[in-house]
Amino acid sequence: MQIKPYTDNLIFFDTEFSSLDPYKGEVLSIGMVKMNGEELYLEVECKEEPSEWVKENVVPLLTQPKVSREEATKKIIEFAGKENSYLVSYVIEFDAPFLYKLIGVTQKKGNREFPYHWIILDFASMLFSIGKNPGSFASKDKNAMVKELGIDMSKYKEHHALDDAKMLKEAYLKLISEG
Q1: I want to staple 121 with a disulfide (CB 3.0 to 4.6 A). Which of 32, 88, 147, 148 is the partner?
Q2: Residue 131 region by backbone torsions, left for phi larger than 0, else alpha for psi between -120 and 50, else beta
Q3: Which residues pair with 109 in a beta bridge?
Q4: HEC profile for the chain?
Q5: What is the pLDDT of residues 41-65, one digit of tens each?
């Protein structure tokens, strides 16, 4: 089944956070990639102690200077621009709440609440709608899906927000070119 996108005005994004609990956890890093290849990567100051899993799998990849939450919000708004882009995430259940928590859900820019369209697109739902197991793109089962899509994973560091956003963009482009 061919997917025909409504628009190409997309920003693919991923967040890494200190814990899965959105009430306690904080964004550690965020990666965003536009269709034209423009990228934003930020590592954000965090007061919460990361979970043990995050300490082992994410913290070693955090090598950039940290920015304040306020500076991160400013840079995300600047990156989004005035186009009212749609965001695309693979794990919207976590990425969206942590993004909202970081930039605030009542952020005003012009006459809109968010620096992007308020509907965030869920890549897992896209997979499901064309008969693919959305869980097959999750970490432990990822090899089968990336092999099927022809993605070279050697280009990407898993659990690095920018690399995950770039890989998501590549997977999306391969998915819409199928059929």
Answers
A1: 88
A2: left
A3: 112
A4: CCCCCCCCCEEEEEEEECCCCCCCCCEEEEEEEECCCCEEEEEECCCCCCCHHHHHHCHHHCCCCEECHHHHHHHHHHHHCCCCCEEEECCHHHHHHHHHHHHCCCCCECCECCCCCCCCEEHHHHHHHCCCCHHHHCHHHHHHHHHHHCCCHHHCCCCCHHHHHHHHHHHHHHHHHCC
A5: 999 999 999 999 999 999 999 999 9
Domain count, the chain: 1
Q: Alpha-carbon torsion 134, 136, 142, 145, what sign?
A: negative
Q: How far apart are CA 168 and CA 151, in angstroms?
A: 10
Q: Report yes or no on 69 lying in a domain.
A: yes
Q: In what order do the strands lie in the sheet with 66-67?
A: 66-67, 39-44, 27-34, 10-17, 86-89, 121-122
Whole-prediction pTM: 0.88
Asked if the structure places residue 2 within a domain, the reply is no
Candidates 119, 121, 168, 175; CA nearest to 3 is 175
**Res. 26: pLDDT tops 80:** yes
Inside any domain, residue 48? yes
Q: Which residue's structure tokens are 């536009």? A: 34
Q: Is 81 among the domain residues?
A: yes
Return the CATH number at 71. Answer: 3.30.420.10
